[in-house]
Amino acid sequence: MKEDGLLLVALNLIPDLGSLKIQSLAERFKSFSDFMKAKPNDLLEIPGIGEKICEKIIAYKSKIEPHREIEKAEKQGIRIITLFDEDYPEQLKQIYDPPPVLYIKGQRPVLDNNAIAIVGSRKASVYGRRVAINFAKELASMNINIVSGMARGIDSFAHKGAVDAGGPTTAVFGCGLDIVYPPENVALMQRIIECGSVISSFPLGVVPLPMNFPARNRIISGLALGTLVVEAAEKSGSLITAEFALEQGREVFAVPGNIFSPYSRGTHKLIKQGAKLVENTDDILDELYLERIHNRDGKEEFDLNKLSVPERAIFELIDYQPIQIEQLIEKTQSNSRDVNAILTRLELKGLIQALPGGYYVKN
Known about the structure:
This protein is an alpha/beta fold. It has helices at 3-12, 19-29, 32-36, 40-44, 51-61, 66-75, 90-93, 126-140, 154-164, 186-195, 213-223, 237-247, 265-272, 281-287, 309-315, 325-332, 336-348; strands spanning 79-82, 101-106, 115-119, 145-148, 169-172, 197-200, 226-229, 251-254, 276-277, 323-324, 352-355, 359-362.
């Protein structure tokens, strides 16, 4: 790594310095070796560097080891790039105050794809999960990078939809890449790395503190052409991501939800404020002037005329609202064994989806 990039890595190791101060310091000292020679008076001449910040920098100068950080990252398959590198993501570089340093694990080229961010509530409803998965799956099948934060709920389901389609997806962390958060997403993270990437602006070892997530959210919206909010409460981190998207001159999309659900209030608020209401991926593609590409798996729509009479009878009872198997048995006056067998066949044909608790919905 060149000296200017090494300086950015070093400055990024100083906690809470912030990207604007890091860039000011980098403009002044140009190289890591020059920075290490800096005296307090040199630092105080820089706009935005007061006595407290100066003391902090001096205290950390003897502790930061950018070479060791790079070596640790490489051993874990993590690449570090800086704003001075040619392959820094162009879309992110265009925002005000882009992160000076990015840690990347996985497939770096996906960061050059057209991207859509999909975010939402950690307490996702059945409806919200299906929306996140279906939108992500369809967009990713067109080689559009699905960007999210790998948080519980909508974020995780968006990543899942993308990897199920074999398409690109990027998870942005609010901690170091050597920490999996939430911990139950270890397997999902591995799947993301295989077809996409995980990235962070935080050094290795940084734990996922609440104060880290606004910076994470800025990167999520900054990487994308637009941000789709699926479900969000009135005071939600997803709305912060939407605000960042607007500040960055990017589009904001929102999916309408159940008017009785508290997790629809945020999305409905966005729609009232001018976010584009979306019902399908065409609404997003049209707004962004992106051409629809046929799904890479080449699957054709199933011909319902090929269903047997019993299969069709049950399929017609299943809608986009979950219905329980007991209701299907009662409505068809069939025995549970036959209904279970038909449901299995319909699921294998990709027409319906099984949900927890014995519920089924139409795909």
